[in-house]
Amino acid sequence: MPHFICVQCGTQFGEQTAPPEGCAICLDIRQYVRWGGQAWTTLAQLEKSHTARIEDDHGLLGIEAKPHFAIGQRALLVPDRAGNILWDCLAQLDHAVIAAIRAAGGLSAIAISHCHYYTTMVAWSEAFGDVPIYLHENNRKWVMRPDRRISYWSGETLALTDSATLYRVPGHFSGGTLMRWADGADGQGALLSGDILQVTMDRQYVSFMYSFPNMIPVNAATVRRIGDILEPLAFDRIYGAFWGRVIAGDAKQAARRSIARYIEAVS
Fold this sequence. Notes:
Layout (H helix, E strand, L loop, with lengths): L2 E4 L5 E4 L8 H4 L12 E2 L1 H7 L1 E7 L2 E7 L8 E4 L6 E3 L7 H9 L5 E3 L9 H7 L5 E4 L13 E4 L3 E3 L4 E5 L8 E5 L2 H4 L2 E5 L3 E2 L6 E2 L1 E3 L4 E2 L2 H11 L6 E4 L5 E2 L3 H16 L1
Parallel strand pairs: 7-8, 8-9, 9-10, 14-19
Antiparallel strand pairs: 1-2, 1-3, 4-5, 5-6, 6-7, 11-12, 12-13, 13-14, 15-16, 17-18, 19-20
Helix pairs in contact: 6-7
């Protein structure tokens, strides 16, 4: 039986004979159903209709579907000293993607910021030898294809390796996650944030939203809490969710400026 994929958000569902009646992730207030109505595809169909852009993005291997598919994020391959970590995910998973990652050393783990990027994460795990997928337990309800390979973590932090740590960050989702990679940015530390921290178009700030497409902000208290989480962390670079959306240097100060600017704007 096929695993149907939502065309709007890229989420893959469990096996079933017919497409789901609707996508719970798109029906949530933070997302939306496409103007043309709910539509579905499969990995086999995606391989025929799309290709993958596989290139360097500020020192990390980035992977993006072309033409634009679903939300349009790109995944990043983090060459951690304990083994490569896939940060965030995308629906596109074809022979070229698999070959490129295997050539780079394969995968040891998958970690994803939030459910808009869960996409075909189970298929990715299968393709690279059943590597574990790390999701915060607060986002369990948004997993549309439950699987034994998913490891739900709890609390505020999880050390994946000696140099890669996950942090629960509020605002967009209760189980929203970012990863600090100590070896990133030439050893000065990097944050991989998805759009838990959304790198703005000028690449000088980040911002915060409960819903980006529906333009629902978060409150000042939540952003202060985000600031409290970020302040003890050492980092000089922030990798956002989309190609080139990277604050390449002095990112700690950029985050501080962003928090102050946001709180001033909503107060």
